[in-house]
Amino acid sequence: MDRQRSCLTCLCFGVLAFNSSLAIYRSWGDAGSVGLVLLADATLLLLFLCLREFERGVGRGRDAMIKAAVWALTTLLTAMFASRVAPLMPPLVGALVWAMAVATATGGLWVFFLNP
């Protein structure tokens, strides 16, 4: 099972790398878009590593720190994508996009830390 998971992980990272390189190629003149793609990839990689560490070390006393890192990374991804999508929408829909991003971050905070 671990070998299958490793092959699937490599395949997913390969697809992500291909998709990211295509996105960078298509938006080469726009430094903001290239930066967003690179930052999103780095954030996804860090998120994957945090989740892997959480899986390996359940109960070692670092759970709260890893949960905080996972929440911060997912909130960063949500804010990055909302900041790119909201300006493309009409103002009311853009406000709804930001409201959903805030609700998602708040919900993650509640589930990870405030849920009894």
TrEMBL record:
The keyword Membrane applies. Keywords: Membrane, Transmembrane, Transmembrane helix. Pfam families: DUF6490. The chain crosses the membrane at residues 33-52, 64-86, 92-114. InterPro entries: DUF6490. PANTHER family: OS05G0181300 PROTEIN (PTHR46610), PGG DOMAIN-CONTAINING PROTEIN (PTHR46610:SF11). This is Uncharacterized protein.
